[in-house]
Design brief:
By secondary structure, the protein is α/β, with parallel strands linked by helices. It folds into two domains: 170 residues, 3-Layer(bba) Sandwich (FAD/NAD(P)-binding domain); 127 residues, D-Amino Acid Oxidase, Chain A, domain 2. Helix content is 27%, strand content 27%. The chain has eight helices and 19 strands. Strand 18 and strand 19 form a beta hairpin. Helix 1 runs parallel beside helix 6. It starts with a strand and ends in a 23-residue tail after the last helix. It binds glycine (GLY). The site of glycine has 7 residues, from loops.
Length: 356
């Protein structure tokens, strides 16, 4: 009998992480299905390498559940997950300061946030502007370098036994497998991890996942110590001293590239928070597409017999380890997934089909 197979559509961080987790879980069980990742272009070329790498569930959730609790849970998995990769991925629990400037809302971002007055905030982060009113401190928040994380997860998945096939365009998807542009049929249980392109996967029930462009800028020569968030954007320290400044939030479809207005907006926020960045070197700018959903929650589960892990919007890097763990447990062991994230929830008739 032919060996069972899991076919993952999309070689971004989520596709790689799901492949890794399934391969490892099956390895611990003494074997299992072949794991194949189909990537149409380059592994990790899209949002996975464009992301800033903020691991900040308490800030990104704005107190909303269940986003906050799954984000916190995934963040707690991070140290062991990145250690298991055996590579430096720039993970650091640097903490986050939500900076409050004149005109900003002074509201606390989270129950765990501690208020620092301006002097205390500037003692922690000396480059902060003299006019700040203070900052909310979230010491558990962290950062990772997605451009190091992606190749490390990719390599670990391959080492664990997953096969990567690049340059493979999927032209049809169903509960029993996919068809490739070459006409080849690849049978198996299908997992769609196509990020902002999820709604374009042929054969998959149309899910309302849309691209939300973010533009980012890399600066060097004026390092910071913490993730700094302000009213209009954020600054993320890289362990090599660079600062990643982001990000625009734009509904422009799949229009790629950076714009003068986007870069200006990012740099205006950046230099308002840390004026010294005005003399930093400009190391480049890029954009990526977040996979947005109407309720800003991810779609994790099965629909019409096809597994989906998509729609992570601003939190794909953060939620990768937990999403992968959930899907691997569901696919390998038949574990139940939280209904709140069901990809079928977007339809009035509701309810995703269950798969065995
Ligand atoms: N997580 C940050 C962003 O999406 O811009």
């Amino acid at each position: 009998m032919e060996r069972d197979r899991v076919v993952i559509v999309g070689g971004g961080l989520l596709g790689c992480a799901v492949a890794l987790e399934i391969a490892r879980l099956q390895g611990a069980r003494g074997g299992g299905a072949e794991v194949v990742v189909l990537e149409r272009a380059i592994v990790g070329a899209e949002a996975s390498s464009a992301a800033a790498g903020i691991l900040a569930p308490r800030l990104e959730a704005h107190g909303r559940e269940p986003l906050r609790s799954i984000g916190v849970e995934s963040l707690t998995l991070y140290p062991a997950w990145v250690a298991s990769l055996g590579a430096d991925v720039g993970y650091a629990r640097v903490g986050l300061l939500k900076v409050v400037r004149p005109g900003d809302s002074p509201a606390s971002p989270d129950v765990d946030a501690r208020w620092l007055d301006a002097a205390a905030a500037r003692a922690m982060e000396p480059g902060l502007a003299p006019d700040i009113l203070g900052a909310w401190s979230l010491p558990e928040e962290a950062t990772v370098d997605p451009r190091k994380l992606l190749p490390a997860v990719h390599a670990a998945a391959a080492a664990a036994g997953a096969t990567f096939r690049v340059g493979e365009e999927v032209t049809a998807t169903d509960a029993a497998g996919v068809t490739l542009a070459s006409g080849e049929r690849v049978e198996g249980r299908v997992v769609v991890c196509a990020g902002a392109w999820t709604a374009k996967v042929p054969g998959l029930r149309a899910l309302p996942v849309r691209p939300v462009r973010g533009q980012l800028v890399a600066l060097s020569g004026a390092p910071i110590r913490h993730v700094l968030c302000g009213a209009g954007g954020y600054l993320v320290p890289r362990m090599d001293g660079r600062v990643i400044a982001g990000a625009t939030v734009e509904d422009v479809g799949f229009s790629r590239g950076v714009t003068a207005g986007g870069v200006r907006a990012v740099l205006t926020t950046a230099t308002a928070m840390v004026p010294g960045l005005a003399s930093a070197s400009f190391d480049g700018a890029w954009s990526g597409f977040r996979p947005g959903t109407p309720d800003e929650l991810p779609a994790i589960g099965a629909v019409d017999g096809v597994w989906v892990a998509s729609g992570h919007y601003r939190n794909g890097i953060l939620l990768a380890p937990l999403t992968a763990r959930w899907l691997a447990a569901a696919i390998v062991d038949g574990a139940a997934l939280p209904a709140v994230f069901s990809p079928g929830r977007f339809e009035e008739r509701g309810g995703a089909a269950s798969v065995g």
